[in-house]
Amino acid sequence: MPKKDPVVDIVEIYQDSKDEYRWTAKAANGKKVADSGEGYHNLSHAKRMAKEMFVDARIKYVSNGN
């Protein structure tokens, strides 16, 4: 079972220019601490991976990439 990540507060998921979904993990101060590194064809796959990696982080869909 994944352990709680004390650094990551929120994971933002967005759709990139290739219509793939990506996520960016951010600390409470808003700084980026990780990203997906790859695109997912389905939003549900990106959400599932973010939830598995960052168990207690909030997951948020944003309409544009960072």
Molecular structure report:
This protein has a single domain (8-61), classed as YegP-like (Double Stranded RNA Binding Domain). Helix content is 17%, strand content 35%. It contains 1 helix and 4 strands; from the N terminus they run E-E-E-H-E. It has one helix at residues 43-53; strands at 8-15, 21-27, 32-35, 58-61. It is globular, with a radius of gyration of 11 Å. It starts with 7 loop residues before the first strand and ends in a 5-residue tail after the last strand.
Key terms:
4 strands, alpha+beta, globular, 66 residues, single chain, 4-stranded mixed sheet, Double Stranded RNA Binding Domain
Note the topology.
Blueprint: E1 8-15, E2 21-27, E3 32-35, H1 43-53, E4 58-61
Parallel strand pairs: 1-4
Antiparallel strand pairs: 1-2, 2-3
Distance between termini? 30 Å
Give me the CATH superfamily: YegP-like
Strand content: 25-35%
> Radius of gyration, rounded?
11 Å
Major sheet size, sense and barrel closure: 4 strands, mixed
Which blocks of ≥5 consecutive residues have pLDDT under 50? none
The shape, in one word, is globular
Broad structural category:
alpha+beta
The first-level CATH class name:
Alpha Beta
At CATH level 3, the topology is: Double Stranded RNA Binding Domain
